[in-house]
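For practice. Any example?
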Amino acid sequence: MTDEITIASGAKSGRLFDPTNSIATVDKMLDRFFETARVEAVYGSPVQNGDTMVIPSAEVFSGMGFGVGTGGALGKDTADQGIAGGGGGGGGGSVIARPVAAIVITPNSVRIEPIVDVTKIALAALTAVGFMIGMMARMKGKSVPRLRNS
């Protein structure tokens, strides 16, 4: 498949950008994006140890964005080739996974053991305390004088 197609319009002819390649790229990106929503992305392979089986589980966050565009113009003087055009596209995304629990299966019971990230909790607490201290200092501080229109 080529990147350009030939267009004929009356006596003028030229080349325009073929959006098929851009659409194929977007299609591939969407396939990869939806692949992260599989059950295998959330639940890991079971691990057997004697009579106990452990199944790890995670939460998966994903986000993406993309855009494509094409355009064209007709030539206005005789030196122009006729119709000209171009296009392009771009995008990006991110997938973040973190463990949240382990499902423990024994002959007598099934239980869920949560995985607690102490570092994340400590950072969130420090951020909240810093924000509160900053707001209290701002509320106790002197007000900024306003400029008057002359």
Residues 4-140 form one domain. Strands lie at 4-9, 12-17, 47-49, 52-74, 83-105, 110-114. The longest strand covers residues 52-74.
